[in-house]
Amino acid sequence: MRTQQRLAEGRAKPIDTIVQNLYFPDDLDAEAADPYSITRELTLPQLQELRRDVQNYQASRLLSKIEAEPCVLGGFVSPQCPGR
Q1: Is residue 82 one of the residues assigned to a domain?
Q2: Is residue 8 in some structural domain?
Q3: Which of 5, 19, 13 is nearest to 60 (CA)?
Q4: Is residue 84 part of a domain?
Q5: Residue 51 has pLDDT above 90, yes or no
Q6: pTM of the model
Q7: Which domain covers residue 11, as residue numbers?
């Protein structure tokens, strides 16, 4: 995952800290910043980039779910799936 790679290399983006806080809370360092403290310091272009990063992250998670279970989306089972 890109987030973990950027964190390990010391070049984390704001999205990385937010993702780490939400999905990997057990991996937090004692000095980990909360999302508000990160976004408070950002300029408008940086906030716009963060927004795009969040949208891309959400889309990639949805795509991963679809790839994992292509016959099930949003709780509905596709009638075209074999064995259904």
Answers
A1: no
A2: yes
A3: 19
A4: no
A5: yes
A6: 0.63
A7: 2-77
